[in-house]
Design brief:
With 236 residues, the chain is an alpha+beta fold. The protein folds into 2 domains: 146 residues, Jelly Rolls (Sandwich); 82 residues, Arc Repressor Mutant, subunit A (Orthogonal Bundle). It is 47% helix and 22% strand. It is built from 9 helices and 12 strands. The strands form 3 sheets. The chain has a 4-stranded antiparallel β-sheet. A 4-stranded antiparallel β-sheet has the order 2-7-4-5. A hairpin with a 5-residue loop joins strand 11 and strand 12. The protein is elongated, with a radius of gyration of 20 Å. The termini are far apart.
Length: 236
């Protein structure tokens, strides 16, 4: 019988598109070679340009994926939480890391080496085809992010981001849709390619208009999601 920890690791990997089509026996063999690593908040996990011989399944905490522009400003590409993977691009093509990864909070990850994963792909050509389709879906999402940055105004990008967070994490309450966890204006600015000051200005406009409320704990509650939807839909 598997230990509780091994079963939990299996569930994390089975839920991800890189692993879900492997048999239980194959996943057991892969987990047997994986190792757990812990990172303190603020610690680098890997740097852009370094070799990508492994990828990580996030077991606990949040990992920040980012790049630094020529002006030294950090742009946050994604925040990865439990049940998802980081480092899969370089892991699959054997190239260099395409971005920096760091621990946004204390993290625990399960590290899978490329040399252990590729033999399973060679034995499962149908899995390889499904993997290509899943990667194409991710590429479409990346293209959408680039398009948003180029074509949408800051209020439209911010509204879209908040609605996305509400859809994936939001909890509907009597006051509106509450987004658990503290959202930092600087972090939102990094995600949307703008300054903290610009984010604060737009949030202030929406707070005064009653569109959203930011608690003293930094938690956002969207009080009028229809107004945000109207703003996003106006560009379609």
């Amino acid at each position: 019988m598997r230990s509780k920890t091994a079963s939990e690791n299996l569930e994390v990997m089975r839920g991800h598109f890189l692993f879900r089509h492997f048999s239980e026996h194959e996943l057991d063999a892969l987990i047997a070679h994986a190792r757990k690593v812990s990172y303190k908040s603020g610690t680098p996990i890997y740097l852009k340009g370094t070799p990508g011989s492994s990828m990580m399944a996030v077991l606990d905490g949040t990992v920040r994926i980012s790049v630094v522009g020529p002006d030294g400003r950090e742009i946050v590409l994604a925040s990865i939480g439990p049940g998802d993977m980081v480092g899969e691009v370089a892991f699959l093509d054997g190239g260099e890391r395409s971005a920096d990864a760091s621990a946004a909070t204390d993290c625990e990850v399960l590290v899978v080496e490329r040399r252990d994963y590729l033999p399973l792909l060679e034995q499962n050509p149908k899995v390889t085809i499904r993997l290509m389709a899943a990667l194409c879906q991710r590429l479409r999402r990346t293209s959408e992010q680039v398009e948003d940055l180029a074509l949408l105004s800051l209020p439209e990008r911010l509204a879209k981001k908040l609605l996305g967070l509400a859809a994936t994490k939001g909890v509907r309450t009597a006051e509106g849709i509450r987004i658990p966890g503290r959202l930092m204006q600087g972090e939102l600015g990094n995600m949307l390619g703008t300054s903290r000051e610009s984010i604060n200005k737009q949030l202030g406009i929406w707070q005064r208009a009653g569109v959203l409320q930011i608690g003293k704990d930094g938690v956002f509650t969207i009080r009028n999601d229809a107004a945000l939807h109207d703003l996003v839909d106006s560009h379609i």
